[in-house]
Amino acid sequence: MEIKKLCVAGGGRMGRQIAMCAAIYGVDATVYDVIEPVLTDVEQWADEYLAGRVAKARMTQEQTDAVRARFRTEKDLGEAVRDVDCVVECILEEEALKRDFFKQLDAVVGENVILATNSSFMVSSLFADCVKNPARLCNMHFYNPALVMKFVEVVQGPHTSTETAQAVYDLCLKMEKKPIWQKKEIPGFAGNYLIAGLYERARYLVEHGYCTCEEVDIAMEYGFSHKMGPFRLNDLTGVDLTFTMMKEKYEQTGIKDDMYDIYEKMVQEGRLGIKTGRGFYDYE
Ligand SMILES: NC(=O)c1ccc[n+]([C@@H]2O[C@H](COP(=O)([O-])OP(=O)(O)OC[C@H]3O[C@@H](n4cnc5c(N)ncnc54)[C@H](O)[C@@H]3O)[C@@H](O)[C@H]2O)c1
């Protein structure tokens, strides 16, 4: 099965870029969001992004016109998923919200439509009971910024059919990504499972006064040639996203991660990272 028409649910940082990437590689892509101003912003962002590609001579005007014609936004879920082959869920990283969304989606989408989640940590098994046909459900996890980063994890849960994983994997290839096909689920999947170990130790070092966030970043950037240390990277991915996950863990297990209080304060003060101009570093 070939995915030719896609709906991306959630027009935030990830959703809009995933949809744009699909449109660039010839897939019809509709961004759906519950907040109308987000969709207005997505439309404006799409125009600016494509104009930038022409200005930098990366694409011709003719090419960007064709991409723009394949990229649209829609505030009605039923309309957004009309005739699509696949829906990529890109809403907030909260299990209850995602479960509600999959139930809502299942009521309006055909049983053969592939349902993928871009969740950073949640395996699709968590949503298998929310949909009629879980064989069509899997993870499709992009990295930020999705237009640039090549790595994508396709994760086949025990409920996922091989045809579903294959179609999603093929879509990644069509988008010139470098995907892996995990045939066994683990929270965070290969990439975030690996990096979570680094984050845990980075936060331990800061919480217990061994070094500062900047020094942790220096260690990883200059000692191990990481493009960005964990805190600089966190400014890119969003301090709020990390705190949401820390909070969920705390609520579920009673375990408070190192630096929990620092993250909470940063979120309260709007220091969310690059998107707000301030996070662990100042971008103004
Ligand atoms: N930010 C990252 O670095 C990153 C990387 C990989 C994966 N992810 C995952 O992608 C997902 C989205 O992350 P993001 O950073 O784009 O978040 P974001 O906060 O930028 O965007 C989320 C969007 O979802 C919308 N939304 C919320 N509830 C909705 C609903 N019921 N229906 C439709 N839209 C709804 C919000 O209005 C918002 O526009 C999360 O699951 C996150 O874990 C994020």
Which percent range fits the helix content? 40-55%
Strand order of the largest sheet: 3-2-1-4-5-6-7-8
- Cα-based radius of gyration, to the nearest Å: 19 Å
Category from helices, strands and their pairing? alpha/beta
Q: Any idea what the shape is?
A: globular
- CATH top-level class of the largest domain: Alpha Beta
Q: Biggest sheet, open or closed, and with what strands and sense? A: 8 strands, mixed
CATH superfamily of the largest domain: NAD(P)-binding Rossmann-like Domain
Into how many domains do the coordinates divide? 2
Q: Averaged pLDDT, please?
A: 97
> What hetero molecules are in the model?
nicotinamide-adenine-dinucleotide
Per DSSP, the total helix count is: 11
Please give the number of β-strands.
8
Order of helices and strands: EHEHHEHEHEEEHEHHHHH
Distance between the termini: 47 Å
Content of β-strand? 5-15%
Oligomer: single chain
Overview of the molecule:
With 284 residues, this protein is α/β, with parallel strands linked by helices. It folds into two domains: 5-182, 3-Layer(aba) Sandwich (Rossmann fold), CATH 3.40.50; 194-275, N-(1-d-carboxylethyl)-l-norvaline Dehydrogenase, domain 2 (Orthogonal Bundle), CATH 1.10.1040. The longest helix is centred in the first third of the chain and has 20 residues, at 36-55. The chain is built from eleven helices and eight strands. The protein has an eight-stranded mixed β-sheet, with helices on both faces. The chain is globular. The mean pLDDT is 97. The protein has helices spanning 13-24, 36-55, 61-70, 77-80, 95-108, 162-174, 189-207, 213-223, 230-237, 239-253, 260-268; strands at 5-9, 28-32, 71-74, 86-89, 114-117, 137-142, 151-155, 178-182. The structure holds nicotinamide-adenine-dinucleotide (NAD). The site of nicotinamide-adenine-dinucleotide has 27 residues, from helix 1 and helix 5. Nicotinamide-adenine-dinucleotide binds next to helix 1 and helix 5.
